[in-house]
Amino acid sequence: MKASKILEYKENTNNNFLKTVSAYANFGDGKIIFGIADDGTVKGLSDLNGDCLAIENKINDSILPKPDFELIVNEKNRTIELLVKEGEYKPYLYNGTAYRRSDTSTVKVDQVELKRLVLAGKNMEFEDLPSLDQDLKFTLLEKLVKERLNIEEFTTDILRTLGFYTKKHELNNAAAIVADENPFYGTDIVKFGVDINQILSRRTIDKQSIFKQYEEAIEFYKLYYRYEEVRGVERTVVEKIPETAFREVMANALVHRTWDINIHVRVAMFEDRIEISSPGGLPNGLSKEEYLEGYISSLRNPILGSLFYRLHLIERLGTGIRRIKEAYKGKAIQPQFIVMDNTITVVLPVVTDRERLTDDERVVLSAFNENRELTTAEVVEHLGYKRGKVIRLLNSLIEKQYITKIGLGRATRYKR
Length: 416
Description:
Strand order of the largest sheet: 10-9-13-14-16-15
CATH topology of the largest domain: Heat Shock Protein 90
Radius of gyration: 26 Å
Structural class: alpha+beta
CATH class of the largest domain: Alpha Beta
Strand content: 15-25%
Helix content: 25-40%
């Protein structure tokens, strides 16, 4: 098994493992195996009992507060497993510094991350902190509450019910984020032409309500990706990208973003797709696999998430990914979910102008996985079609912009 974000090998019990103990206690369960070299070769330890005692003493003497851990001795290969649990009393400091994992490395956290750990140790989120501005206006929120919740009078009690006050009766950051004006970065929307050098339109909604950002993004979407088509006496609305998918992605990008950094939600609109990038990776405790499956909800901003749910701007919490995939059910081209440490990007492809696929074309297209390049011969071998038929189908898929051709002659390959 290779070293990973949650697994580290140590050939001996030198103090450098203590940084990783801090990282696991701060950001998620992990394992350190002593007696194994960096390349995975088992070396074994000469004094298992003595090394166990040394590991335990070093953790107890060097990590504050004391983390939750367990030691497992493997007599057969003479290794020791150190299992570290994510703790409740963050931050966990080694020599006064908090650490996190970055792929297979352990690095110091920055000041923003340290502040988040302090909040997590107090069972708080950034949205729970008191707003620096206590003179907030809620025109947009009032309008939505009255329209969607059938409430006649918008009062302070409603704000309190929505979770916008601290225990000291101060308006919090969640209130500021939904207020008409606030100090936070917002959303940058760009519509490109044939390439990124051609900007057709741009709108940055900055220091304004999260609802203003959401509404502006929907208007941009309708302008470029929805139109009416007249057939005989009937008028039909055509969506080049499913509107339900765009609304879900946009709402989730705003609700789940990190608000304590000066970065915009980025909405990049192209002829064949929309890319929505949200600042902040996955919330702590949520794996990439759980996120992509869409079965587990871990809210970074629970007050905002609850508000969007109450206002029916998102469906049941934790079902966003499944709803996006459902909007593309049966389509030949599917959305992409790109998860990185500090951003999550969702790519919604245009579908209506590219749906004219025959059954044979769909079969050929299915041979291509993401980032996989194939030769004509490989497609023939994979599907069992005759070479001439495969060439005709590949050329048709190129014309319909489902795949691209790379190279010339015998070096020719095709990529989806």
